[in-house]
Amino acid sequence: MIKPEAQIHIKNLRLRTYIGFNDSETKNKQDIIINAWIHYPATQAYDTDNVENAVNYRTLCKEMIAHTENNRFFLLEKLTADLLELCMTPSNVTFAKIEVAKPHALRFADSVSLTLSANRDQ
């Protein structure tokens, strides 16, 4: 029997938040772009067609938006780690990876980004 693993990808979630420690960064919100990859076993979800057996990506996305927009961060590492923790909260998530990018952070680069990932011990 096939036991596929679902892979959810929240792509290019564009938000604004306070991130950084320079004067201008602490006074002005900046654009950020979030990408999230969330894996979980899909067998129960497709066997039952019941939302309770799937990862609710809409709920996760709303939590990511609220956390990002309602807090201040000095470092990309902190924001990225917080978002990773949110994505690992559902007990059926086996792997998550978060990338947070700051467009225009460097003069000649499109963006600077940080990626963190985690596996759940099985």
Automatic annotation (TrEMBL):
Keywords, ordered alphabetically: Isomerase
GO molecular function: dihydroneopterin aldolase activity; dihydroneopterin triphosphate 2'-epimerase activity
InterPro entries in alphabetical order: Dihydroneopterin_aldolase, FolB_dom, GTP-CH-I_C/QueF
SMART domains: FolB
Top class in the EC scheme: isomerase
Family: Belongs to the DHNA family.
Protein name in the entry: Dihydroneopterin triphosphate 2'-epimerase
Organism (species): Marinomonas profundimaris
Lineage: Bacteria, Pseudomonadati, Pseudomonadota, Gammaproteobacteria, Oceanospirillales
Gene giving rise to this polypeptide: folX
